[in-house]
């Protein structure tokens, strides 16, 4: 018995020492993890700052020129102004209330809220990833709200009051964009359901495309729609705008990783690949149909490919992006040249035909091609998870229904507040550049 006690006494210091070492090691590991989580990453921050600037460039420059060149010359400035003012108003609304509604503390899976005016966010606060400032995340997401609402304008240009548009933008960001952003990205019920949307196929493109279609149907056709030729004012501007959109889209998609890492690099590459492939498929099918290789078609194909790859960018590999882009060019071509002509609605610049149709395809394709070797957060049909495709379709349906109903209500309110949404027939005939702005796009003497 005495020997056993002596043995225990001898081992006790060793045991205590071992326990202390284990505790010390565990404490060090916890501290190391905490440091990684809570320390701002300079590289990630620099990249997201750059990506934010790239996405900002897309709206008042890229989209404005893309849409402006497709409008008639008497409405070119008004078309550009709608994109520019859309971004301006969305920026203000976002910092006042949009951000907290989209990314604030979740309330029942439907909406978020913390505080207005970003007042609860300190300069030192880090976003949930733990590597970039929360204020930078808010700014990055602000640029998404700005381009989403601006995309809608393409469906209703040349006949909408500028005052109605400004009020609509403010209301729509609050009532439509912020809730859907919360559902998908802010911890809402679609996020919990498992909907995958890396950079905005559902939140941005389906949302904007459906909203544009609803407004076009309510507002009615342009007075000379289908009666006379409506030639674009400048294909040159449109191609330049498409190129700027392509450039900015690298920030849109690769920036959505919120880190300078391998997934961001993959998103960058597949974005370029899908855009190029969609341009080719649109161009070829257009040649088969009309025997022409039009620059407008090439530019439209580029944008369709960018739209389709957006929800999938951080989840798919390069081979999948080739397929996604090729199909995007085809479905968007028929969305513009088939669906619109068959149903005879006046979606002026094909906001639904390109963004809505290609966005729906992109969301579905994400459910098919999401590759866990690219991103462990997403596994699609081809990799053994057919449920993901069903989830994606459910997300599409929910977004379409809510966007259609809420947009109709918001547009009605904006119309009432401005004494009607549509300009007078004489003003429409004269052109909105002079009527609304007192300016001309070109003064050729």
Any overview of this molecule?
With 445 residues, the chain is mainly alpha-helical. The protein folds into two domains: 1-38; 46-437, Ammonium transporter fold (Orthogonal Bundle), CATH 1.10.3430. The chain has 15 helices and two strands. It has helices at 2-38, 42-70, 76-103, 134-152, 162-185, 189-193, 201-219, 235-254, 262-290, 295-309, 318-343, 351-369, 386-417, 425-430, 432-437; strands at residues 106-107, 111-112. A two-stranded antiparallel sheet has the order 1-2. β1 (106-107) and β2 (111-112) form a beta hairpin. α2 (42-70) runs parallel beside α4 (134-152) and α4 packs parallel to α7. Mean pLDDT is 92; it is low at 11-16.
Low-confidence stretches: 11-16
Biggest sheet features: 2 strands, antiparallel
- Counting DSSP E segments of at least 2 residues, the number of strands comes to 2
Reported by name, the CATH topology of the largest domain is Ammonium transporter fold
Classified in CATH, the superfamily of the largest domain is Ammonium transporter AmtB like domains
- Strands side by side in the biggest sheet: 1-2
Overall pLDDT score: 92
Q: Can you write the helix and strand succession as a string?
A: HHHEEHHHHHHHHHHHH
Strand content: under 5%
**Structural class based on helices, strands and sheet pairing:** mainly alpha
Helix percent band: over 70%
